[in-house]
Amino acid sequence: MLSTARIANLGDALWEATHAFPTQTAFIEANRDRVNGVWTHGEVRAEADRLGGLLQSKGVEANDRVAILMGNQARWPISAMAAFRVGAIVMPLDYKLTPAEQLALLQHGTPKALITEQVIWRRLVEEDPTIADALIPLIPEAPDDADLKGAIRWESESTPVIPASRRREDTACIVYSSGTGGTPKGCMLSHGNYLAQAEILGTLFPLVETDRYFSILPTNHAIDFMCGFILPMLFGATVVHQRTLRPQFIASTMKRQGITHMAVVPLLLKALGDRIREQLDALPDWQRRIADGLISVNDNLTAKRPNQRVSSLLLKPIHEAFGGRLKQLFCGGAFVDPELAQFFYRLGLPVAIGYGLTEAGTVVTVNDLKPFRPDTVGMPVRGTSLEIRDADANGIGEVWIQGPTVMQGYLDAPELTAEAIVDGWLRTGDLGHFDASGHLKLVGRRSNMIVTGGGKNIYPEDVEATFDDLSDCEESCVFATDFIWPRGSMVDETLVLVIRPQDALTKDTRTMVAERNRTLADFKRVSHLLVWSEPFPRTASMKVKRSELAKQIGEQCAPNALEEAA
Amino acid sequence: MNITDQLITLASRRFQVDPATLQPEDDFFEKLGIDSIQALDLLSEVEMHFDVEIPDYELQGVVTFAALSALIEGRV
Prior knowledge:
The complex is a heterodimer of chains A (566) and B (76). Chain A is an alpha/beta fold.
């Protein structure tokens, strides 16, 4: 790994790496069964310098913000490197949000430039025709005859870039952890935050130049940004981008490109696991018995630590389905089902389970696999301290974090920052305890939010407006179901809509709830309804006292009082 | 058989649902009880059936059989 000890900022680290490994392949872009393009580290540097010059020629200066709103492709990290080269702050945005949600974040973050794709740009302009006046849009790969709607071609030639210097304490990125409907939470992460995280993870999970990381999580996601961009660059390894998440093409690309490392969210890990289970179940009895025997042998041989060479020999057909070179899976973004992680480990496909949140970089605890512990999220990483505050009799309390990866604060939200960071410690809102060996076990959340299997943070406040002014209804409020009735689990989390009807809940109201629910993205929908007859407790300024209402409901109702929202 | 009906037949076969219970304006996530990865699997089958290629980003916000049908119609 490139030594970052004397490097002042993330942009310089990436730029130095392209010099250290000039002819090594940096990016391969796969699209279904085709390869769209291949870039060496040297070519990446040349492209980033050209684009940096273009950004500068259009007026982007140090400390300006540059938003990146693209699917997985090589131009994403090249664009980020170009922005860093001119000292700009990168704002990675989620291409899966609706145009209205993307516009809300653009309005909040006020970037000077936006680098996006033609289809996304067209949708943004349709939603808000004035958007082209508010920023400098750049789009790659536009056909020659395309109507760019005020955008500049990403590929345009430029004047030479004049690099800008940044310090470790300067902001490198603003990453939105939530707030598409409520108050946006733009986490300001410094160059020092990223370099510290890269040093920590690079020591724990070193790569070699022949390794190939498969980037299928969106690069705006903290895990892919670190594991599928920064780390492979610093190690001179290769990143394979894939433009589709369809399982059949994931499998074929893994085989064709010889993927060694990959990060997934629990939802995708489950889909991959289901496929293996289906294939195992389809085996004739005698073959199944042999497979089970080999899995047991592998189990014994890898009890203390993984051994990729042994596992891939013993369980060759299963490993070949993943390309035959897979060394390591990372799973994050949401709680990982321990049984599922155990299933993969038994097949010789170790899943590194960690715990992290955007506010603290990528991970603050990680399982080092020596030995594998699927029941925990591992131990704190080097240099990071975790404390359990306000613990109950069982040692369970809120997880607080201090360390070199904790964010600087939320953009333009001093009150939110003051709530989140207290005396240099980040309050996570997550509940957990340490076991005797120092591994962290998470058991629930103190905060009123859910994390989906796809790794999306959903705050009830963000979906509540969808259910405003329901007919025959006095008031309504959305909760994370576990916030009212804690289960001690963080899988299959759901939202519940609490309604106080004028009289009784009418058919019209139910229909209206179902209709409005359908307007939300599938992962944001409320799954249940609860009818509540008492007026909601409110503050002097008429805001619902959520904690008090949740407590009242929890004390007076059982979870079986819920009805399906659909 | 029109495109929407063909889509409903494909979906009902794959997820073993009675096609008579599926309507063009139905939200297929909700009606079939599937997650986003399973939906992508279904779409791969749809692409093969109609011999079209639909990039993932074109599918953002497409949740009904009718909307998916319109997307395919523009490409076949």
